[in-house]
Amino acid sequence: MPAADCRERRGTRAARLTDPLATFAVTGFLMSWLLGQGQRAQCAWALAAMLSREQNVAIVLIVLGNALTKRLWQRSLWLAAALAIFLAWMATLRHAYGAWPFLSGNLALPFAGIIYRLMHGNGIVGSHSIPIHMLAIGFLLLQVGLSICMIFLRAEHTVLFIALAGVILVTLAGIPIYMNGQSYTRVFLWMPLAIWFWSMQTGRSWPVWLLTPAFLWPCFALVQVWQS
Predict the structure, then answer these.
(1) How far is it, in rounded angstroms, from Cα 85 to Cα 49?
(2) What is the band of 165 on the pLDDT scale with cuts at 50, 70, 90?
(3) 198-226 pLDDT, tens per residue?
(4) pLDDT in tens, 172-190
(5) What pLDDT shows up at residue 30?
(6) Which helix (H) or strand (E) holds 122?
(7) Which residue has the higher pLDDT, 115 or 33?
(8) Of residues 85, 94, 17, the one with CA closest to residue 57
């Protein structure tokens, strides 16, 4: 196997190892904000969320904007401090490696990734996986619909904006993100997370029941490993 392919696979595996940490950190950050915990705890959660996955900067910015709107100046300063530390770390990596630590091609024209997946259903795991990928797109669009419904059902602003940020990410996600089913759970986490928080806040159970097909993804991952 070429050395470049080995490095790419090691990088992909390392990125997947950070997914549980990123999910745990961003969930802890949102819970600390919604429960009104201390500023230092929120700063620590925010920093952990951003360092484990850089796209979580968007969630921190949403919460920071909400804090500024509510004139919570101390919380805003602590969140701004977390952002400053994160940006300083990114600048350090840029200086050390000569490039920004972000993957190119992750963003594209609106719906380019979805169109590619619908037109190339076989992906990288063979034509026998076309039904699985089509179901994956359908489930993803279901989450988009639930996120848009939150606008009309007057969801809490922070949770609503996170859900809509997930809709924007789905729309602008590039072809590499849609290459395999694992990306659907790794990248498009904001929508189901926001829907879950929304259900907890309002006492509605039906949105969570609609998200239960997500439990099938571990089975899909096992099938992919068995096929390879």
Answers:
(1) 12
(2) very high
(3) 999 999 999 999 988 777 766 666 666 56
(4) 888 878 876 666 666 788 9
(5) 94
(6) none
(7) 33
(8) 85
Buried b or exposed e, range 65-94, using 16+ CB within 10 angstroms:
ebbeeeebeebbebbbebbeebeeebeeee
CA distances from 58 to 10, 26, 88, 125, 141 (A): 27, 11, 17, 32, 21
d(CA 167, CA 188): 9
Read off the DSSP letter of residue 62.
H
Contacts (Cβ under 8 Å, ≥6 apart) of 63: 29, 30, 33, 42, 46, 79, 158
Q: Is 84 left (phi over 0), alpha (psi -120 to 50) or beta?
A: alpha
d(C-alpha 179, C-alpha 27), whole Å: 26
- The helix/strand/coil state of 173 is strand
Q: Give, to the nearest 10 degrees, the angle between helix 3-34 and helix 57-69.
A: 20
- What are the tokens at 45? 């959660």
Q: How many CB atoms lie within 10 A of CB 225?
A: 8
Secondary structure (DSSP) of 137-160:
HHHHHHHHHHHHHHHHTT--HHHH
Rounded CA separation 45/151 (Å)? 27
Closest residue by Cα to residue 103 from 186, 169, 11: 11
10 Å Cβ neighbour count for 132?
18
Domain ranges of the chain: 1-102, 103-228
Cα dihedral value 59, 60, 62, 66, nearest 10: 140
Give this prediction's pTM: 0.81
Tokens 């039906």 correspond to 206
